[in-house]
């Protein structure tokens, strides 16, 4: 599944870019940009590894994730300066990153021996926790908790992967199907502004 | 100690409800409600397990906690819609949840071999960390850090449990006494608005 | 390296004081002051131990860190009341704490078997994560992400220590040189208001 590895690095880069852009809205210094880029990119996988007990966590074992996230964060700063960053591409890239992260998270949890329900949850957590930490660090109520079908797309992808693994499908097939489901749902949500009902309650 | 297990699930449900209500004040979508409910309910125990090195964490080993928290979060949304939720019951239920979580946390830390001081601290952390994460995610300065005798009640309960365990009391007795102490102190604090002094300092 | 141990406790006390002062700006109660003091003091080392898989984390193994942090937090409250706290000393003490934490973090990661790049990163994380959590809990965008050469000083110190360890220098020499580099850079940054460029981007 070498393609999945490259997609994983691609997702890491995309999430790092979203972290760097969030830093730009809060006037952080260059080091703050780096921190926010890296934390957004590796936060979800770190939480997954910590709760599963898979330590040292993945980016200690394979530091390439850190270097990719750092490089992508700095590159984002440069590109916004030279106005070469096509703003409309970012949500599409982010959707691909989300889809990749959620199925990888689900597959790794399953491989670590968790039950299917927990594996699906781990997929969602891997996909959304980085963005959640990014928003907390920049003082925002996390957007993933109130945006059009974001975590829901991750859940759909995770569940697809987990269900196919349960049915003894080959891992690569399970991962690709889950990835496509999450990607399709997220892109549809962006295109047609699909969203879950909002819960408002002020006693 | 089957009763303690049921109380633990009850505390999980109550904390999930408080998370869902906090989500309702920030207009999160239904998935955001679920996340906030679950994180509030399991955050304290997760931090306890991670720092003690008890991984995979408890809700991976026993997913029933996740399902109870999710169900309680969704039920809270339904009940606020149908106006059946008696607002005055929630603080009482929350006090029972806090009391249960803190003594369970202390007892489990002791069973994991920590010293009595650390065990008492683990009890407090198990009781208050979920609410603390809930408030950070919704952009509030954590209420547990400035409310009437909240964490202090957890500390009193934890210390009682730990002291009795030190005196070779049977675990169930230690847990019940600690639970009653925490509950009584928290209810007294609600009734008579007892609180610690506030520290204000602006140089 | 007994001196390093005492410096580590000193850094713990200083970071706890900065946590207590942050609590004073948000009108927390005395327990909230304690929590913020302790979390600021041990947050970085806790994150380091969790990601490295060194559990139970250091303050469970050696609770003296908790007692020092608690005592320093309470002492800070008393000193601000009696006007004995020289405001200009705190940044200097904080610089010493930062320098100590970052080289200890780097050295411990290296001892745990990580590569040099990860060890340098662990040093930075140990130095800055506590302050970062402090700011998140009090609802601020973390100052370490936008202040004059703060994390950068930690990085310089960590890299120095790691480089000397790579060159087979004795650990105590590596730690002391890294400490002096971080301290000098941080003090210079305070004195001459050195800072990294700010990244501002609002599409």
Short description:
3 copies of one chain form a homotrimer. With 203 residues, the first copy, chain A, is an all-alpha fold.
Quick tags:
about 200 residues; mainly alpha; 8 helices
Describe this structure in words.
3 copies of one chain form a homotrimer. The first copy, chain A, has 203 residues and is mostly helical. Chain A has one domain (2-192). Chain A has helices spanning 2-24, 30-52, 58-61, 64-81, 89-111, 116-137, 151-166, 171-192. In chain A, α5 (89-111) packs parallel to α7, α6 (116-137) runs antiparallel to α7 and α7 runs antiparallel to α8. The N and C termini of chain A lie far apart (52 Å). The mean pLDDT of chain A is 88.
If helices are DSSP runs of H or I spanning 4 or more residues, what is the number of helices of chain A?
8
Q: How large, in whole angstroms, is the Cα Rg of chain A?
A: 16 Å
Q: How many structural units, i.e. domains of chain A?
A: 1
Question: Which percent range describes the beta-strand content of chain A?
Answer: under 5%
Number of strands of chain A: 0
Shape of chain A, please?
A: globular
Secondary structure blueprint with pairings:
3 copies of one chain form a homotrimer.
Chain A: H1 2-24, H2 30-52, H3 58-61, H4 64-81, H5 89-111, H6 116-137, H7 151-166, H8 171-192
Helix pairs in contact in A: 1-2, 1-4, 1-5, 1-6, 2-4, 2-6, 5-6, 5-7, 5-8, 6-7, 7-8
């Amino acid at each position: 599944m070498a393609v999945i590895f490259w997609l994983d690095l691609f997702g890491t880069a995309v999430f790092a870019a979203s972290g760097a852009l969030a830093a730009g809205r809060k006037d952080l210094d260059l080091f703050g940009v780096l921190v926010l880029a890296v934390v957004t990119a590796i936060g979800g996988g770190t939480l997954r590894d910590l709760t599963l007990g898979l330590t040292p966590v993945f980016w200690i074992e394979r530091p390439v994730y850190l270097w990719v996230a750092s490089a992508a964060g700095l590159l984002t700063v440069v590109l916004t300066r030279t106005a070469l960053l096509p703003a409309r591409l970012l949500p599409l890239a982010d959707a691909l990153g989300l889809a990749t992260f959620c199925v990888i998270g689900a597959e790794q949890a399953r491989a670590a021996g968790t039950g299917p329900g927990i594996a699906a949850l781990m997929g969602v957590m891997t996909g959304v926790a980085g963005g959640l930490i990014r928003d907390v660090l920049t003082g925002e109520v996390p957007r993933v908790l109130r945006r059009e079908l974001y975590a829901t797309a991750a859940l759909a992808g995770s569940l697809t992967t987990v269900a196919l693994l349960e049915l003894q499908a080959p891992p690569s097939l399970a991962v690709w199907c889950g990835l496509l489901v999450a990607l399709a749902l997220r892109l549809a949500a962006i295109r047609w502004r699909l969203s879950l009902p909002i819960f408002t309650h002020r006693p």
